[in-house]
Amino acid sequence: xxxxxxxxxxxxxxxxxxxxxxxxxxxxxxxxxxxxxxxxxxxxxxxxxxxxxxxxxxxxxxxxxxxxxxxxxxxxxxxxxxxxxxxxxx
Length: 90
Fold this sequence. Notes:
Residues 52-79 form a coiled coil. By secondary structure, the protein is mainly α. The protein has 3 helices and no strands.
């Protein structure tokens, strides 16, 4: 990917308002949805780490925590589909 400047939330709102085209709006929604997913995953990870630290967790507890995080990552990966063309390598 070439370097680029990430649009701010304010810029996404401007794009949404200025471009009523369904495809443009769908892209703006995808950017914001991806941001929400990242924040959700960070919060999930922080919560699991807190739990593991406070509860003198076992290796099995850590595996379960990682499985919960991985499950959420897989849900997001499934939602967005292949990283390249359909059926292509990721």
